[in-house]
Amino acid sequence: GDDIDLFHLKNIVTHVQVKTGTVDNGWNLKELKASRNSTQDKKPKPYSSVLHKSLELDKDTNLVSKFMIVTDRVVKGPLSFLEIPLENRAAKTGRDQLVKSINSALGKN
Length: 109
Prior knowledge:
Layout: E1 3-8, E2 12-19, H1 29-33, H2 50-55, E3 64-71, H3 95-105
Parallel strand pairs: 2-3
Antiparallel strand pairs: 1-2
């Protein structure tokens, strides 16, 4: 597959999703939460989205998980906050909106 796990000191792992050419108009939450697989009867398979598959990697309670998408496509909406380098994010707005949007996409309100 195209997924990479980077293990760091202090029990930190970064789960990296590499996505190229899979969306036409850029990445947004709608694309991230869209089902990527179908059932045998051609219905969208629940929990098969990029968002769900990434978050299901966060199972080890002994590790701190971080998530990353590497893509050649533009990033839109609340996801654009993720383009800000980590060391600069504290001074920027947008994190709360991103968290709220992801929780909503996962059905957590």
